[in-house]
Amino acid sequence: MDGSIWHFDDTDDEFLAAPNYPQPEPEHDDHDPLDPTQPMLGGHHTPTHQEHDTNDDEDTGDDEDTEHWSPDKGFPDPTGAVRVWMTPTFDLQRVRVSLNWRHKLTHSSLDEAFGIIFMAINAIYHQGGHRLPSPDPLPAEPYPGPFGWHTLQLADREHAKVDAELTALGDTEPTTWIGHHTTATAYDNALTITLGIFGQPISATFDPQWLATNIRSSDITKAVKTAYKRARTKHTPPTVTFGKRELLTRKHDQITRNLLATFQHGIQTGLNGPIIGGQGVDG
């Protein structure tokens, strides 16, 4: 170790084997000033004031400039125990867990830490939501024969019918996205990652019994990356269910385009002459 209080892991660990219960590894790095596995005078380790003020705190060095924070610096939780790097398309890049995470989360939990981070990620990357699409327009079908008074009257009757149906709808279900949350686990269900219907991170739920073992920061990092990658692989994009109002509006538009398409059949002429500008012209 180089003395860092963070653990980085960028390996492809989708198929990592689950660690045995309990794990023999120390839960902190040998250089960790707050390592509770190290024997101390009196039998218990009580962190000194100096230890709390040293570089075991996340807000040191480059991370100290919070006024100029940007997503490329990672999304931290308020305690400084966890930091996550993620792209605007919700691809997980890196996870960093403090070697002192137990101490920093004394009054919180890993579930809450990741939950807050995921909320921040969604606030930055998901704030605009996903605009609902309009239904594809129906193909224009010209009325039989040339454009004339009879086609105008036919289109008018069809428009009136659709207008009446729209009025009768009242409150009805609008167009909406239909999808499901996706979950995936790692380390024999020690961690469950949940994604929303658009593949955005929702929660990380850790098994308390697993956390109570002598796991290390690297185990947490690998578990999160593995479960998240599996969830993203399983995720299925949502579909759209169009509301009746939107579908009737589409029908109304088709009637108008049907009328315009009838011009390709020519303009009706008769006893009153061709229709020009809405008026009959005597021949």
Topology of helices and strands:
Layout: E1 6-8, H1 49-53, E2 75-76, E3 82-86, E4 92-98, H2 101-104, H3 110-125, H4 149-169, E5 176-178, E6 182-186, E7 191-195, E8 201-206, H5 208-211, H6 217-234, E9 239-241, H7 244-261, E10 275-276, E11 279-280
Helix pairs in contact: 4-7
What would you say this structure looks like, in words?
- This protein is an alpha+beta fold.
- The protein has a domain of 155 residues.
- It has 7 helices and 11 strands.
- The chain has a 4-stranded antiparallel sheet with strand order 1-4-3-2, with helices on one face.
- A hairpin with a 5-residue loop joins strand 3 and strand 4.
- The chain is rod-shaped and about 95 Å long.
- The N and C termini lie far apart (100 Å).
- The relative contact order is 0.17.
Summarize the structure.
The protein is α+β, with helices and mostly antiparallel strands and 283 residues long.
